[in-house]
Amino acid sequence: MDETQPLVPTNLPADVHWGFTYAGLNSVLHHAHFIAMKRGAASAHMAANWPGLSLGDAITAARTAGALANSRQHFSGYTVRRTLTEFHILHDGTTRIVK
Questions:
Q1: Distances (CA, A) of 40 to 51, 52, 68, 79
Q2: At what angle do helices 55-65 and 22-30 cross, to 10 degrees?
Q3: Residue 95 buriedness (CB in 10 A; 0-12 / 13-18 / 19+)
Q4: Would residue 18 be called left, alpha or beta, if left means φ above 0 and alpha means ψ between -120 and 50 degrees?
Q5: What is the distance between the alpha carbons of residues 12 and 15, in angstroms, rounded to a whole number?
Q6: Cα dist. 22→6, 10, 26, 41, 91 in Å?
């Protein structure tokens, strides 16, 4: 994980409820591990950066929107698409990928 990159984009449009940078989605995948979940690190990470959104719901939304691709290289089973700059979950529940 690149700790120098912001996880949440700055200056999000008004219609965005939760926003993720490329690094933000990578951090979600990083916490999608049974140890992080069992110790509460995953839920604490989500609450600190995307209050009210669960890790599972974030992954499901990103996967359904096409922001994630299947990967055998990562323990989560996914990887963030390289063309993605930001991923947004809007107030109405729809999603947006920014390339």
A1: 15, 15, 24, 22
A2: 130
A3: middle
A4: beta
A5: 8
A6: 9, 13, 6, 20, 20
For 20-71, the pLDDT digits (tens) are 999 999 999 999 998 999 999 999 999 999 999 999 999 999 999 999 999 9
Question: Do 28 and 68 contact (CB within 8 A), yes or no?
Answer: no
5, 23 contact by CB (below 8 A): yes
Predicted TM-score (pTM) of the model is 0.91
- E strand segments, 7-85: 16-21, 68-70, 78-80
d(CA 78, CA 85): 17
- Type of residue found at 59: I
